[in-house]
Amino acid sequence: MRKFFTALVVVPLGLILIIFGVANHHLVTVSFDPFNSTDPSLTLPPVPLFVVIIASAIVGVIAGGTATWVRQRRWRRAARQHEADARQARSELADLKAAAAASRGDAQRLPGPALSGFYGSAGRDKQGVTL
After folding, report:
1. Torsion 56-58-61-64 (CA) sign
2. Which of 33, 82, 110, 117 is the most exposed place for a label (fewest CB within 10 A)?
3. For 123, left (φ over 0), alpha (ψ -120 to 50), or beta?
4. How many of the other CB atoms lie within 10 Å of CB of 48?
5. What CA–CA distance (Å, rounded) separates 17 from 54?
6. Is the separation of the CB atoms in 65 and 56 below 8 Å?
7. Which residue has the higher pLDDT, 124 or 64?
8. Widest CA span of the chain, in angstroms?
């Protein structure tokens, strides 16, 4: 089911990107100099327009993901702290159970193997017939 939904999203998105690339294959020059538009000092060599747009979208997704990851730092820290507290509580509980069992003088008993055969107790089936 998940593969179906992935294909349902990825295939149309891929088709849209291919159509976009074919329609916008003209070369453009990207300039990073806002003060001198006639002879910019910071430029990229001419690249197709669709490369510029897709690259800027990729940079935007990475920047947004990074910003989200940084903002969630507090929640990740709290989750690590709660996990450490739970681990410590489990350890203390196990120590208390061991101490209580030792003070009673009982060793923890594990149930022994069942004395039943394949069809029931003492090798009999449901109707009580001996096998």
Report:
1. negative
2. 110
3. left
4. 14
5. 9
6. no
7. 64
8. 103
SS3 string of the chain? CHHHHHHHHHHHHHHHHHHHHHHCCCEECCECCCCCCCCCCCECCCEEHHHHHHHHHHHHHHHHHHHHHHHCHHHHHHHHHHHHHHHHHHHHHHHHHHHHHHHHCCCCCCCCCCCECCCCECCECCCCCEC
Instruction: State the CB neighbour count (10 A cutoff) for residue 101.
Output: 13
Which residue has 């300039």 as its token pair? 31
Please give the structure tokens belonging to residue 111: 């149930």
- The string of pLDDT tens digits covering residues 86-118 is 999 999 999 999 999 888 875 545 555 555 555
